[in-house]
Write a structure and sequence with these properties.
Peptidase_M60_dom; six-stranded mixed beta sheet; Peptidase M60 domain-containing protein; Pep_M60_3; 642 residues; 26 helices; transmembrane transporter binding; seven-stranded mixed beta sheet
């Protein structure tokens, strides 16, 4: 079914959809085989959709306010006749927004709640009082026009799934349509050309069918279809959260996705990325998840296990924290964890094999070193533990790496000493206590969500970097720029950051500092981009290019800070960062840049206004006046460029 005739009818005399104004609508997931989008944004988000259900029809718009919008009247006139199917019956309208416009449709309209004898029922999506009756009404040939959004409901019902709990979806889900928490901002959207729209538009079930053929039989996907694989993965994951095993269309999709996942081994291509993202969700909703394991896990050797392993640890943190256990669960392996009564319902969660003061019934022992606890004799045995993943827990950081890279690690205590130095120096520059309130975590893995490394908790890196993280010789000899860069990201603070310009810039202050102060590697050798010739070249090019802040980022922006460091040293930065713990900062970049200029100037007791202006910073008259009594830095490096 291609819905071209339906769209031709619905869009007669309609050139655009006016969603302008403050109303924020929800995105609609069109997932039924007999459902179709009608109105979409340029990005493909659906705000208006229709569907066949049994012998009847339904149209949903993702904000009830649009039902009464005069500029949409031509469409609503078409819609109400499409839903009525020529019966010339009674249109029952529960939404007062829609009464005035629909009364001009030529059909008999009356204000009423749902009742028998209607041809079309018009309602909002905020009540499921008559959900069963409305579904039966449509299945038996009635028409339903429903409007509403799920985003506000999701905000006031945190932790609840809008697919399964939002009232409107109790009506719509089985009809192949669902209102999501994702939002669509108001705008003016061009009405589609039906024939081209059917050909070019994304449709969840259609692309799922095509992708299934691609995986199973090698059927070639079009460029347009390949571009939508990421969206298919997102929608597939959302759809599976519906967990509607009693719904035939849901079980059909689960069956299709199960067949797809079982036919491939991720992860290299966009297809593989999609399969990987779906595999976890399929496992969660599969009626027989254990039967999927042989397909999802190709290589899963048996490993020796320990029983009733007790874990004792103390945690005092206000933030989420993972607790190392020295245990591993192999893929598909299940265990039971006995938790003490005092931590039940206190927000504790298990992250793979982690917990607090618990007894783990069965797990695989892992190589695990903890500073101050693990003895050399312990380590000589622990490093041979069978788990493929190991953890090294030091004073302020925990490294999760493949076990292969620690099997030959003879002196983890020396590595611990080095990482303790690194982390203390990071704290020093940030003007923070040496003891981190929560240990940083560095996890190396086969696949990460973004880039070669990314900051956060935990910091993530590709598996290939693991050997460098645990080699004192490599770290002291060649440095560890990337890892320190990510640790620097975790020290950045919005009050002295000027996003997006400095996002990939100020984190490198820690890279330079640690390499020079801990590793003894001067900045020009720590990273090729820090060679003096390249630094000077960037400053000159920036100045001669008009000192445009739009190009002041990353290495160019870092040179501003390096020139300050060359003149005033690292202590100046430590004092500036310390000062920011006691002052409030404006939200806009202009205000923050002026505050930074004042703070740094007052810290070093020198007027730096001219210096910052030479870098194109928007230093205002008030800042210049405030700093006018301080001696001016008149021979700064940018003077030579005029």
């Amino acid at each position: 079914m291609d819905f071209e005739d339906d769209l031709e009818f619905l869009l007669t005399g309609v050139s655009e959809f006016d969603l302008q104004g403050s109303a924020v609508s929800s995105e609609i997931l069109v997932h039924g085989s007999l459902a179709f989008p009608i109105g979409t944004t340029k990005d493909g988000q659906t705000f208006l959709a229709g569907s066949y259900y049994g012998q009847g029809r339904v149209i949903v718009v993702s904000h009830e306010g649009f039902l009464g919008r005069q500029t949409l009247a031509p469409f609503w006139n078409n819609a109400i006749h499409w839903l009525d199917e020529g019966r010339q019956g009674v249109v029952g309208i529960a939404s007062k927004n829609a009464l005035a416009i629909l009364s001009n449709s030529g059909l008999k309209c009356e204000r009423t709640e749902f009742k028998e004898g209607l041809s079309v029922f018009v309602s909002t999506a905020y009540s499921d009082k008559h959900a069963k009756e409305i579904r039966e009404f449509v299945a038996e040939g009635g028409g339903l026009l429903i409007g509403g959004h799920a985003w506000n409901w999701s905000q006031i019902n945190p932790g609840q799934n809008e697919l399964t709990h939002f009232p409107g979806n109790h009506i719509l889900n089985t009809m192949g349509l669902s209102l999501l928490r994702g939002t669509i901002i108001g705008g003016l959207h061009k009405a589609p050309e039906p024939k081209q729209f059917i050909k070019d538009n994304y449709h969840f079930r259609h692309l799922l069918h095509r992708f299934s053929g691609h995986v199973a039989h090698g059927e070639k996907l079009s460029k347009h279809e390949e571009e939508n694989l990421k969206r298919l993965g997102r929608d597939g994951s959302i759809f599976l959260h519906m967990d509607a095993k009693e719904c035939s269309s849901y079980t059909q999709v689960v069956s299709s996705l199960t067949a797809i996942v079982c036919d491939s081994c991720p992860v290299k291509t966009p297809k593989d990325h999609l399969l990987l993202s779906l595999a976890t969700e399929i496992y969660k909703v599969s009626p027989n998840p254990d039967a999927l394991l042989p397909y999802l896990i190709k290589d899963n050797p048996l490993m020796p296990v320990v029983y009733n392993h007790k874990i004792k640890t103390d945690v005092d943190t206000a933030a989420e924290e993972w607790i190392s256990t020295g245990l591993y669960l192999s893929p598909g392996m299940k265990t039971y964890i006995a938790m003490p009564e005092e931590i039940v319902n206190k927000g504790w969660k298990i992250q793979i094999v982690e917990g607090l003061e618990v007894t783990v019934q069965m797990a695989v022992p892992a190589p695990y070193y903890k500073s101050g606890v693990t003895t050399p004799a312990d380590w000589s045995l622990l490093r041979t533990a069978p788990s493929p993943w190991a953890e090294l827990e030091f004073e302020n950081i925990i490294l999760t790496v493949p076990s292969d890279v620690v099997r030959s690690l003879e002196r983890p205590d020396e590595l611990a000493t080095l990482w303790d130095e690194i982390m203390r120096s990071i704290a020093d520059l940030a003007a923070k206590p040496h003891k981190f309130p929560r240990k940083e975590r560095f996890v190396t893995d086969v696949q990460i969500s973004h880039g070669w490394m990314h900051a956060g908790y935990p910091i993530m890196a590709h598996k290939a970097t693991a050997a460098e993280l645990v080699s004192t010789a490599h770290i002291r000899g060649k440095g560890l720029w990337g890892a320190i860069h990510e640790l620097g990201h975790n020290q950045q603070r919005g009050c002295w950051e000027f996003k997006p310009n400095t996002t990939e810039c100020t984190c490198n202050l820690w890279s330079v500092y640690v390499h020079e102060e801990v590793f003894g590697i001067e900045r020009g050798k720590a990273h090729p981009a820090m060679a003096l010739k390249k630094r000077n070249g960037r400053a000159k090019t920036y100045a001669e290019g008009g000192k445009k802040l739009g190009t002041w980022s990353m290495w160019v922006a870092l040179e501003t800070y390096m020139q300050l460091q060359d003149k005033f040293g690292w202590d100046a930065f430590k004092k500036v960062f310390a000062a920011y713990f006691k002052i409030s900062s404006p939200k806009d970049n202009n205000g923050k840049m002026n505050l930074y200029a004042v703070t740094f100037s007052q810290t070093v007791e020198m007027n730096l206004s001219a210096f910052f202006k030479s870098w194109g910073w928007p230093i205002d008259a008030a800042t210049e006046e405030k700093l006018s009594t301080l001696p001016t830095w008149s021979d700064h490096p940018m003077v030579q460029y005029g």
